[in-house]
Amino acid sequence: MAMVSGVVPASEEDSMRLSMVRSYGNSARAVERRYGFFMHIAVLMIALMTVANPAWAETTKPIKLVVLGDSLSAGLGLPAQDAFPAKLQKALQAKGIAVDMINAGVSGDTSSGGRDRLDWSVPDGTEGVILELGANDAMRGIDPDLTRAALTDIVGRLKARKIAVMLCGMLAPPNFGADYGARFNSIYPDLAKQFDLPLYPFFLDGVAADARLNQADGIHPTAAGVDIVVNNMLPTVEAFLRTIGEQRR
């Protein structure tokens, strides 16, 4: 009768039972080794995912954004999926950044018009507003002091609601003269400095006056033009959203 680990089986049945125990122990150690290996791989994968996706973007709750603007945001002359907010949301999603985007662009709206509809255009729960207003003010030659006052009021009211604001600048057309242009063009950098806002200096940068990227009116971008606006603005928007994400912590 053989001895195993100092135990003397009392019968053949005991011997078989002991053999099974030894076999199970070996199997358990093998499972433990495999488990440890897979856990190591899982930890490595999580680490790589953390590097690929910034911590501020790792959330099950999308950031709630509103684009408050005019026809440049509304997407005049374009299908809904080609409007600036829709394309911006798609570009952000491609980077793993989840946003709930509301297109609050109204064609023909001035900065004063945006101010008048601010409360119902920007619902409760909004975390950030991309403010794109002023193009119609400049095209109509509205007094820059009125534009400045309306935009200042919009920003101040949003700040009072604890809503972050990113400002999109606009440039006056040259037909109203250099003095008008200087007064109008200074509005956006001044507001950005006054309220410590992220500023994208000119919404139509890289698109304005390029017939290939504008519709027949020469004012509103084509879908390809919107792509350029989104690509150019994306780093500024990402930095803006990063600030909102960090404030959630």
TrEMBL record:
Domain SGNH hydrolase-type esterase: 67-226
GO BP: lipid metabolic process
Transmembrane segment boundaries: 37-56
UniProt keyword list: Membrane, Transmembrane, Transmembrane helix
Sample GO molecular function, one term: phosphatidylcholine lysophospholipase activity
Full protein name: Arylesterase
